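not sure who needs this but someone in the group chat was asking about UDP-glycosyltransferase from Flavobacterium aquariorum so here u go. i didnt clean anything up, its just raw.
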Amino acid sequence: MQNNKIFILLPDGIGLRNFAYSDFQAIGLQENFDVVYWNNTPFDLTKLGFKEIKIQNSKSHPLTEIYKNARKQIELNLNIRRTRETVYDTYRFPFSYATIAKAVKSGTTELLSFTHSSSFGLKCIRKKIKQEERKTLYYHQSLETLQKEQPDMVFCTNQRPMTAIAPLLAAQDLGIPTVTFIFSWDNLPKATMVIETDYYFVWSDLMKKQLLFYYPYIEEEQVFVTGTPQFESHFEKSKLLSRDVFFEQNNLDADKKYICYSGDDVTTCPDDPKYLEDVAIAIRELNKKGDALGIIFRRCPVDFSDRYNKVLDDYRDVITPIAPIWSKIGEGWNTVLPTHADIDLQMNTIAHTELVVNLGSSMVFDYAAHDKACAFINYDVKNKTLKNWSVKKIYNYVHFRSMPNKETVLWINSPDAIASIIEKGITTNHLVLENAQKWFEIINQHPPQDASRRIWQGIKTIISKE
């Protein structure tokens, strides 16, 4: 008998923003679901009033990482054959041979990738991952938890972590339906799928097409288009601070208008400090002409480096850093976790800035939700940090092909163009705003504020079928 108990599997902190810090849980309760978080993060969700079961031992099999890495390489190989495009090579990370252990892992991964680069070979690798994970203590403890709790579904918040494989396998072996949410707009072309579930929730019709294209073993009826809760907060107007309060809290000059410079991580944009400096120089030029402008610098939440320090010091007259409120609990990028407070901070930063400048990030959609423009940096600096890096590589990624046309963002093609582009963005270019909204609608099911409700409707549909 169904008890409407839904396990929300949090294999890592990536899903906290979408599924713990949104209205997702509250909507589930309104729909008479018993919502239980199967929590593999260090966060205590009981402090939010949530039911949770802590995962105590999430150790994967030692061979799983090798098979997982081989799977990614094989999928990228198959994508190249299928499309005859080499763009998929740009999604690979270099193998490391720095230590004996790393050399063994890298060598084995490369060998498996070479010997299994076919649909049949990929199927064998997928099967090996499941075989190894079923041998782990983690898998057997997951079985015990599920047998005791008897949920009607396990919903995984992210398709990427190895730590999700064992509990989802345990659920499937017990006949419990499983679902995963595709986390980000660029994930599918990158071959980031680590888990396999009975159903998949995606952002848009476009993402559904991509999922079916890149993973031919998935059937159309397994895919639900829901949108993402990622943008819902932008429509919660009650959480907006007044301009006076926001400016006072963040030591901003009430006589200035601000643009936001949204930073990237060091891998995506190794020259980000130089781009920030170029924007600061342009703002100084505009202020000399009589404007009163400033920059709010919001760094990438997973970048705790000191690489911006000199620029922030040299241009303190125009740059005010407002750091994301994320919690760092380890050294890896996936151990830097969002907080509830940062959602409100980001929304208010957008509300009280005129436009955003960055290198190809999804902040374009956050600003589109507020009817504000985005300017994409589109030039290489003279003395690049890495000779083989270029903005051309970034904008050649598959997910940018979804842009309706070139006039969807403002393009900064040289440092000399920054000042005029900022002026254009502040005065509001209606064509750019319209196209940005069209892009937002292509990327994410609309209305965006109803994503959580659509997810729960999908869950309800699946449970009634099962």
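also The chain has three domains: 5-60+136-228+448-465, 64-132, 234-443. if thats useful
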